[in-house]
Amino acid sequence: MKEVYINAIEKFLPNQPVGNDEMEDFLGLINGNQSKSRHLILRNNGIRQRYYAMGKNGQSTHTNAEMAAHAIRKVLKNHLTLEDVELLTAGSSSPDLIQPSHASMIQGELGGKPMEVMSAEGTCNSAMLALKYAIMAIRSGDKKNAICSGSEKFSAWMHARNFTAEVDKRKEIEDNPYIAFEKDFLRWMLSDGAAATLLQDHPREEGLSLRVKWIDILSFANELDSCMYAGCHRNENDELVGWHEFSSAELMETSALSLRQDAKILQEHIIKAGMKHLQEIKKRRGFDEKQVDYFLPHLSSMFFKKQIYNMLQEYGMTIAEEKWFLNLPKVGNVGSASGFLMLEELFHSGRLKKGDTIFLMIPESARFSYTFLWLETV
């Protein structure tokens, strides 16, 4: 099996950063009213700014595929031409279309020659699934190089025009911050942007490369219920009914196309299931948290940082806070691109040296799946 190296990683964040006080200028007012829970939610999630691929008029400035293509062009610069690329994989939880596939739309934006493309479906782990496909293609010798992107365009989805009236849950949010992790919470958390990586079967001749030691992905959908969902409605029997079962009027009435999150299920399982996976990795792969130089956990909210730290400590796998590397407060939650965006910032920070180890943790609450990725600088 061949070694796999991440030799370049770049990002594309659209337009200018949007501060907390400007958000409703872009996302609009639901029924003409300012959100009564926005300040409480922002206080809990710790996000100070984010990026939107649209203007204050609600009109888009970039598609999801365009943002991914911008990041890919940057990652190819000084490395390969588009004609040299053998494989394109992509992940997103907010593709522009249901069909054709997201990777096909990115390829259409890029042009170039015909090539193999692969799209991974899901939420935060979709780009990690796409990354694993690229890693396996190179490891097996089927491909010598691959481009993998993660990208999101949530802003148009979160615009006020897509929402019915919201309930003021100020008292509930004060008593239990998890209550905020529902439909309204997502409006004040999610951000747009893209990142792309270049993977090859050899390291760079100059500069640092990231050697992929292993990637481990596990889903708990066999035992846990859906937590984050869209394109469906939860009926009186607690079943998710897909959008294609509804008329156009019913889709509007049920807000079936809105992105939602079940706070109770999230609170109960999001951290515990991840720790269960990590314990299994510790046994099977001999994972040693003491060898971690940089820990890059994808957090949907800074609210979870203390909970994860405490849970790691409880399970005897403490990772010192000085090893944590986060950028959520300044880029927002960019879903599938978040892991790559943390890695991109660290890669270009000047802090890395040969022999450093990087440990990524990407949880996905949709139906609870987790990615753990171990990299080493060479």
Q: What is the domain tally?
A: 3
What is the CATH architecture descriptor of the largest domain?
3-Layer(aba) Sandwich
Q: Sum up the overall morphology in one term.
A: globular
The low-pLDDT segments are: 165-170
CATH superfamily of the largest domain: Thiolase/Chalcone synthase
By DSSP, the count of extended strands is 15
Number of helices: 12
Percentage of residues in strands: 15-25%
Main sheet specs: 9 strands, mixed
What's the average pLDDT?
Answer: 92
**CATH class placement of the largest domain:** Alpha Beta
Features:
378 residues; Peroxisomal Thiolase, Chain A, domain 1; 3 domains; 9-stranded mixed beta sheet; 12 helices
How would the blueprint of this fold be written?
Blueprint: E1 5-12, E2 18-19, H1 23-27, H2 38-45, E3 49-50, H3 64-76, E4 87-91, H4 102-110, E5 116-120, H5 126-139, E6 145-152, H6 170-175, H7 183-187, E7 193-200, E8 210-219, E9 228-229, E10 232-234, E11 240-242, H8 248-254, E12 260-261, H9 263-285, E13 294-297, H10 303-314, H11 328-331, H12 338-347, E14 357-364, E15 369-377
Parallel strand pairs: 4-5, 4-6, 13-14
Antiparallel strand pairs: 1-7, 1-8, 2-3, 6-7, 8-15, 9-12, 10-11, 14-15
Helix pairs in contact: 3-4
Explain what this protein looks like in three dimensions.
- It is built from twelve helices and 15 strands.
- With 378 residues, the protein is α+β, with helices and mostly antiparallel strands.
- Strand 4, helix 4 and strand 5 form a beta-alpha-beta unit.
- The protein is globular and about 55 Å long.
- The model is unreliable at 165-170 (pLDDT under 50).
- The chain has three domains: 5-200, Peroxisomal Thiolase, Chain A, domain 1 (3-Layer(aba) Sandwich), CATH 3.40.47.10; 211-220 and 264-377, 3-Layer(aba) Sandwich (Peroxisomal Thiolase, Chain A, domain 1), CATH 3.40.47.10; 228-260, no CATH class.
- The chain has a nine-stranded mixed beta sheet, with helices on both faces. Strands 2-3 form a two-stranded antiparallel sheet.
